[in-house]
Design goal:
The protein is α+β, with helices and mostly antiparallel strands. Helices cover 25% and strands 27% of the residues. Helix 10 runs antiparallel to helix 11.
Length: 628
């Protein structure tokens, strides 16, 4: 350990005194230089195929957090507690006194964090530790960091090293800035937080400390470090967007780049998926949940596409060309892909193929495996007998994804995904969105401001009803102030007038079960059109002003989309009465959420847009506020 500290000092890398103290006084520390090394350590060594991640918890005795298997295609980890298999949206607490609208640790738990911070350091000193350096972000944009975890949690460290870029010690650049540190201490979940997932952010002057008191990567290794990037961007006035990005090429060589945003479950990863044909080669648009009718169309050729980002995109000033379009770059080194939609062989041939025999070890979570088996992405573990875990995952390194783009790309279309419930006249809901809608920029900003989480979210612990994730849908991961982020998002939209905005539901269109087909069919259609504008007779103001413009007709390669999928009030099971009640539900929700942003710190344009929403503005009024 003296050699590591000496090497850091020779390279001008300053380790915080608390970290040096831990490294000098812990039972042992292993410094890892690659994900492959962590994959070996995940099961306790190359000779072991099964490993139990367990801790002695004061007052409870030994507690097993996860069972880890070495499988032919990587490492598979399963949590013993079903609660740990999804992200709890209430994990964050802020320990510092810097500006923040988030709940402070002292207010949430009724005691100061200082003593727990010291207790965490003392616990780490009693452990065998794993440590590695990483970079959160890409191409020099982001934050350097170091992770410190108990050695028996190597599977967690493996996931972190895949999502961020692990850096070997001998490749650390001169003056490598440690802007973030992750300390992992799982037993405190039981001793201090009643078994809940908790991640504490402590923004010090020179370093952003993050204390992960659980072993699910979602709120810490993934979204926790997203929070570090957001904190950096808040200080420097740039955004890391919550989105997937894909460059799509039509059969006629039109190229269109989509940036698909949305709350958890909003279809970001799915925007990078292929459309799966039925056995007869047709495309299923949807199935009527009342009558069982299935509506299919024929599309002879699909567009080709190149993935760019899966969940996080850097919108840094250094990559902008100021050409009216937003330019983005992937903020991640790997993608945390949910595979709940893959229930049998053939549901997603691309993911099945790449995960069965990958060129490097993958990390599977919530997938049923046995030691030495092959992890199958459609074989999900059960939370209870007969009840599949809704959040099976695989971490996929972006450098093994065919056709992935490593350079910044210019965005043509920013779409926003909403997870919608079924809607009918007898059971109205906000599931009134048509296949897709066109939004004026002011309304596009409002949707990002509210960011509805939506129906039956599989990724997180929730009540299942409509909730808001807020500003840009990344607010659950941000540590700062809401209005500042709202201003940044609006400035971004104003500065990129050539970008078009759309809105797409997933799961249901009225009473029709559609899955993620709306956004995929939108991708096919708009790519074929390229820069060509829709004809004036093709769209009109939607019956609900929050939905912008609705389509009057839509034809893809000669296949006509029935109007019931474009205008939900045309469905006899919904009608105008059911639709209008759904609009009322949606409008009440929007008004309750946008009021949170109505304060003097918001830009004057932002306040005018919010006032328009509160006064039931028409689509034309939204368009007049910020261009069409």
């Amino acid at each position: 350990m003296e050699n590591l500290i000496k090497a850091c000092k020779e390279k001008g890398i300053v380790l915080p005194v608390e970290l040096e103290d831990i490294l000098n006084n812990c039972r042992s520390v292993t410094v890892f230089n690659s994900t492959d090394e962590l994959a070996v350590a995940a099961t306790g060594g190359a000779a072991s195929q099964e490993f139990e991640v367990a801790y002695e918890v004061e007052g409870k005795g030994p507690v097993t957090e996860a069972i880890v298997h070495r499988v032919k295609n990587g490492v598979s980890a399963n949590y013993t507690d079903p609660y740990m298999r999804r992200r709890d949206p209430d994990t964050m607490a802020i320990a510092d006194d810097q500006p923040s609208d988030k709940e402070r640790f002292a207010d949430k738990y009724n005691y100061a964090f200082d003593d727990l911070r010291l207790d965490t350091f003392n616990w780490l000193k009693k452990q065998d530790l794993a440590m590695f350096f990483f970079f959160a972000g890409r191409d020099g944009i982001g934050a350097g960091g170091v992770a410190v975890a108990p050695a028996n949690a190597a599977f967690f460290a493996m996931g972190l090293s895949m999502l961020q870029q692990i850096i070997p010690v001998d490749e650390l650049p001169e003056g490598f800035g440690l802007k973030s540190i992750i300390y992992v201490a799982p037993p405190f979940r039981h001793t201090h937080f009643d078994g809940k997932q908790v991640v504490v952010h402590n923004r010090l002057k020179n370093v952003h400390e993050m204390f992960s008191y659980n072993l699910y990567p979602g709120p810490s290794a993934k979204k926790g470090l997203y929070g570090v990037l957001l904190s950096q961007g808040e200080k420097e006035n740039w955004v890391t967007a919550h989105c997937s990005t894909v460059q799509v090429v039509s059969p006629y060589d039109n190229t269109t780049t989509f940036m698909h945003e949305g709350a958890s479950g909003g279809g970001k990863s799915e925007m990078l998926q292929h459309i799966v044909r039925e056995e007869n080669g047709q495309i299923l648009i949807g199935e009527n949940t009342k009558t069982g009718e299935r509506r299919l169309i024929n599309i002879p050729l699909f567009c080709a596409f190149n993935p760019v980002t899966d969940d996080m995109a850097l919108c840094h000033p250094s990559i902008q060309k100021k050409n009216g379009r937003l330019r983005v770059l992937d903020a991640e080194n790997a993608w945390f892909i949910r595979v709940d939609s893959i229930n049998q062989y053939g549901d997603d041939p691309f993911l099945e193929k790449i995960t069965l025999k990958p060129p490097k070890p993958l990390l599977f979570l919530n997938i049923a495996t046995t030691p030495g088996s092959t992890a199958l992405v459609w074989d999900h573990i059960e939370d209870a007998p007969g009840k599949k875990c809704p959040n099976p995952r695989v971490i996929l390194p972006r450098d093994i994804v065919p056709g992935v783009l490593d350079k910044p790309v210019s965005v043509d279309v920013r779409s926003f995904g909403v997870r919608t419930p079924p809607c009918s006249d007898e059971a109205p809901s906000y599931g009134i969105l048509g296949l897709f809608h066109l939004l004026p920029p002011a309304l596009a900003w409002l949707w990002r401001l509210v960011s509805p989480r939506g129906h039956a979210n599989p990724s997180i612990v929730s009540t299942g009803g409509m909730e808001s994730e807020g500003v840009g849908s990344y607010w659950p991961f941000a540590t700062g102030e809401m209005v500042h982020h709202a201003n940044l998002l609006l400035e971004q939209i104003v500065a990129t007038p050539k970008v078009r905005y759309t809105l797409a539901p997933n799961q249901y269109v009225g009473v029709w079960k559609v899955g993620f087909k709306p956004q995929l069919l939108m991708r096919e259609y708009l790519t074929r059109r390229g820069d060509a504008q829709l004809r004036p007779d093709q769209y009109q103001p939607a019956r609900s002003s929050l939905l912008g413009y609705e389509l009057n007709y839509l034809t893809i390669e000669g296949a006509k989309i029935p109007s019931r999928f474009l205008k939900v009030y045309r469905q006899p099971e919904v009608g105008e009465q059911g639709y209008d009640e759904g609009h009322r539900i949606l409008m009440e929700f929007f008004k309750s959420e946008v009021r949170k942003f109505d304060n003097p710190a918001l830009s004057s344009l932002g306040r005018r847009i919010i006032a328009a929403c509160l006064n039931d503005a028409t689509v034309e009024e939204y368009a007049s506020l910020l261009g069409k």
